[in-house]
Amino acid sequence: MRAATLAASLLMVCSLPALAQELPQFPKAGPPGALPEAGCDTALPNNGGWLLGRWVSPHSRWEFSRQGQGMVWVLDRKGSGDDGMGWSAGTRIDGTVTAVTGCSFTLGAGDGQFTMEGVLTEGGKVYGVASNAKGNTARFLLRRER
């Protein structure tokens, strides 16, 4: 009886990896990749009007506005997920738009503590890759707030 139970147990344990392969596999977010190719002539001057206003992404809300001769931004982080940037729920970061073209931008905050480059995609969303002073990176996909 013990031998039969042991044999059945071994058979079940051996079949678990095969069963696990049949479970649905969900895509994992990889590390931030390169930005998509800019869809405009980035050499032409632009006032950045397309970037002004509110944008949202999962767990964050962004607002871009004019201040004096330049543009500023504010990021309100709502989620508590560990994204590798060292942020906690309720983190608020603000900075300046250091460069803008007809479809791309560069952001900065805290004397190099936070930088981000972004590109406006054909679908009207912004794909961005941010980094902090420690070299940690995160990607963002922003859409207009409704």
Short description:
With 146 residues, the chain is mainly beta.
Describe the structure in your own words.
The protein is mainly beta and 146 residues long. It has a domain at 53-144: Lipocalin, CATH 2.40.128. The chain is 14% helix and 40% strand. It contains one helix and eight strands, in the order αββββββββ. The chain has one helix at residues 2-22; strands at 53-57, 60-67, 70-77, 92-100, 104-109, 114-120, 126-132, 137-144. The protein has an eight-stranded antiparallel beta barrel. The chain starts with a helix and ends with a strand.
Question: What would you call the shape?
Answer: elongated
Query: What is the mean predicted local confidence, pLDDT?
Result: 79
What radius of gyration results from the CA coordinates? Answer: 23 Å
Q: What do we call the CATH topology of the domain at 53-144?
A: Lipocalin
Termini distance?
67 Å
Count of helix runs: 1
**What oligomerization state is this entry in?**
single chain
The computed structural class is mainly beta
Give the CATH level 1 class of the domain at 53-144.
Mainly Beta
Report on the biggest sheet: 8 strands, antiparallel, barrel
| Uncertain segments | 26-30
The share of residues in helices is 10-25%
The CATH architecture designation of the domain at 53-144 is Beta Barrel
Tell me what portion of residues adopts beta-strand conformation.
35-45%
Order of SSEs: HEEEEEEEE
The number of distinct β-strands equals 8
Strand order of the largest sheet: 1-2-3-4-5-6-7-8
